[in-house]
Amino acid sequence: MEAKLQEYARLLIEVGLNVQKGQDLVISSPVECASFARMCAKAAYAAGCREVVMRWRDDVLTRERYLHAADEVFDTVPQWQRMFFDECAQSGAASLHIAAADPENLLGVDQDRITRAQRAGGEALREYYRLQMANAFPWCVAAMPIPSWAEKVFPGLSGDQGVDKLWDAIFSAIRITGDGHAVDRWREHLDTLHRRCDILNSLDLESLHYTNSLGTDLSICLPEDHVWCGGSSRTTKGVPFIANIPTEEIFTAPLRDGIDGVVYASMPFVCGGTVVEDFHFVIRDGKIREVHAAKGEEALRAAVSVDEGACRFGEVALVPYDSPISSQKLLYYNTLFDENASCHLAFGEAYPECIKGGESMSKEELSEHGLNDSITHEDFMVGTADLQITGRTWGGAKVPIFVDGNFVI
Amino acid sequence: MEAKLQEYARLLIEVGLNVQKGQDLVISSPVECASFARMCAKAAYAAGCREVVMRWRDDVLTRERYLHAADEVFDTVPQWQRMFFDECAQSGAASLHIAAADPENLLGVDQDRITRAQRAGGEALREYYRLQMANAFPWCVAAMPIPSWAEKVFPGLSGDQGVDKLWDAIFSAIRITGDGHAVDRWREHLDTLHRRCDILNSLDLESLHYTNSLGTDLSICLPEDHVWCGGSSRTTKGVPFIANIPTEEIFTAPLRDGIDGVVYASMPFVCGGTVVEDFHFVIRDGKIREVHAAKGEEALRAAVSVDEGACRFGEVALVPYDSPISSQKLLYYNTLFDENASCHLAFGEAYPECIKGGESMSKEELSEHGLNDSITHEDFMVGTADLQITGRTWGGAKVPIFVDGNFVI
Predict the structure, then answer these.
(1) DSSP symbols for B263-297
(2) Which residues from A are below 8 Å from B34, CB to CB?
(3) What proportion of chain A, given as a percentage, has pLDDT over 90?
(4) ipTM of the assembly?
């Protein structure tokens, strides 16, 4: 176990974030993950990191705050917090986010407070998020188990047993065996994803058409100068990093106004501490017109109306149905894993790297190229075993991309 | 145990900090103390707290930073951190500090880094500390066990056993039994301390003379308008609070230039993560002229030279040798407890409340009244079973204050 944890910490610092000598690192971690956060910090200092700054989080206190704090605190973000994030972004500090949360932590919380807090945060940290989306600094989202999360994934098991089993699942998903060769396996895996991107990029696609037996029938137009990305990204200074570990997807941005049809989710979606299940959207001219959910509909409606851009789409991502994480047949209730088990879409902000030269464009220029702008970016899963995706090129040719849930290119 | 913890959390919030409806609370806590920090947060919300903000700390990461971060980070404090503290002080947020640390956490760390960090912090947060010392907001230092600390107090015991035993000692020291009457016991105890203050204040003392068999022979002049304080303090808005739980002391400020002689420490002193043992100071005209320590002398020399005022004294505190904590015959290696088991002195900053009207005086005015100014304030213990303290009044009369380690007034 110790060997696996060490290998994991090194993978995150040396490959995920690719921390450079003299660079700062900010680690955002639940207090329960202190021992692993310390390992990451040690690995960072070993890699020449200038300083590690911790941003500790705690689910319990987050919930207490939503339940009991004064109402006005959800409408503002303290000036010092904005300053912290701006200082980090401007200095190019690497950002490691250890994603581990009780998926239902905010069950029963006043949705209005959550939405207002999200709006206030999005507004206050707009510049930080813009720089993050534009890869101005390396960032990496990774995970480790905490009991409340493990209990949701393995409802039958007690705390420690669930945590152990979730560790096994995570290590398998991120190619960690403790043999010291995780970095080599990752390089090989990234090559596969980069090759897929090259093929997609060579197709010169105008649009994609999704259908499956859930009822999905969706057409998605792509910007003329769209780029398929995946595997590693590069910071604006040219340093490669991996924004998500695991990552199995290749992705691009849709044309903001160019999505029409119906799309059914294929997995539950954890939306700000609430689990949304059995949902679908009706979309016209790129905008979500109808929201239907068997469970968590209020949270979902709130999520797609947090600002003007939240009801439009920012990402189209392709993941084979027989990808390693999907083959685990495990519902993680954690977007980082679930999105890498399934084709997915995201409503909200698009990634600038998804159009040629996008990372150096202003918000206005990105908008002119058809990319969506929002303070949110939420992935939800649409892939199934019978998903068909057919591309249409600018030349008018039809190209099968996915047949029965998997790539055919 | 649960009942004791709940009683403790309520004592800190309702009596220690006396959190008012609509007031913010900042809790500074080691990550290991998360469960108790959460209890305190819940108690605060129950008392009408507007918002609880956490400042998590971690000994391990603090040590890693001192060992491995780039050298220049110890000379500055980020602007956002200064802004955070200033916002807290200006809004009158209550401050709870959960003191729990490995006493030797910084053993072997470059002392120069520690000193520079202390100077940079003291400089950046000067206004915050000034407002804290002047009771512009309620603050309370309390403690809970963590394994690294418990191991030092009970060297023979394993982690959990040591922690349990340290909990017992702490609960006893702070009058918590789990019977729900801790608040009543505290009110009674505060009355005792206040009565002692009244007596000392009525004596109109000009100076104190300390002697014991360790070799201490020290005379301490007091400002003409000095005030003996103890038990609860009051914020500048008039709200009572208790700055330390436990507290057994009554204290005042010495005249900055009016201390002469030799003083021997009666207990080890934990000085920024290093334990200093068997030490004494030679003092002339209020200034420490000689520093001698059998162990940790470098750390001690650094502590008394962090700035110009660090080599002069800021506090004179009286604690009976037969006080409850002293009777535990336990060395806590934690100033909060050890200082309340023994008469002590502090080098560094004086408390403005220790002279009449001091809380509304500027630094310059306090200095004109003979109070010491520094970015540091470090208590060290001088009480012994045979300590004699004789007062001399402005009228020239000699008044025995302590005989054989205990009050005789």
Answers:
(1) EE-SS-EEETTEEEEEEEEEEETTEEEEEEEEE-H
(2) 31-32, 58, 60
(3) 96
(4) 0.93
